[in-house]
Amino acid sequence: MAFVRAAKLDAVPPGTMREVSIAGTSVAIANVSGKVRAFNNICLHEGGPLCEGTLTGQNVVCPWHAWEYDVETGKIVGNSEIGVEIYPVEVRDGDIFVDID
After folding, report:
1. Which residues lie below 8 Å from residue 20, measured CB to CB, with a gap of 6+?
2. Residue 51 — φ and ψ, nearest 5°?
3. Is beta strand 75-76 parallel, antiparallel or unpaired with respect to 17-22?
4. What's the domain range around 30?
5. Whole-number percent of the chain with pLDDT over 90
6. What's the pLDDT at 86?
7. Terminus of the chain with fewer CB atoms < 10 Å: N or C?
8. ∠ CA(26), CA(31), CA(34), 5° rounding?
9. Which helix (H) or strand (E) holds 86?
10. Rounded distance between C-alpha atoms, residue 28 and residue 1, angstroms
């Protein structure tokens, strides 16, 4: 799959996240101080929706059981061995494009 339009940039202001579905995959889009990141929205612990958690700096805390992920790497904070998948992002003319392949 190639890059697909996922959201308008103004729909994800700095310090916020938004869930989108791309080809059946739940993707979280986070805007960290103007830098847009995309990652799998499903927490590895028990499937909590990461985009409903708290974004603090570049870390997101799952709302269900407080597992914390670095949105730059997708890795669990304190355990670089496991994490959620991150996806390439491009911002073009006010639109966010994500490639989930």
Report:
1. 6, 7, 27, 29, 98
2. -70, -15
3. unpaired
4. 4-98
5. 98
6. 98
7. C
8. 150
9. strand 86-87
10. 18
Give pTM, 2 decimals: 0.94
Provide the CATH number for the domain around residue 92: 2.102.10.10
User: What tokens were used for 50?
Assistant: 């990461």
Query: 16-36, pLDDT tens digit by residue?
Result: 999 999 999 999 999 999 999
CA 54 to chain centre: 12
Tokens of 43: 């927490």
Residues written for the chain: 101
Average pLDDT of the segment spanning 38-42: 98
Number of domains in the chain: 1
- Using DSSP bridges, classify how beta strands 68-70 and 59-61 pair: parallel, antiparallel or unpaired: antiparallel
Alpha-carbon distance of 3 to 66, in angstroms, equals: 31
Name the H helices within 1-101.
none
Rounded CA gap, 23 and 47, in Å?
18
Task: State the Cα–Cα distance between residues 81 and 16, nearest whole angstrom.
Answer: 26
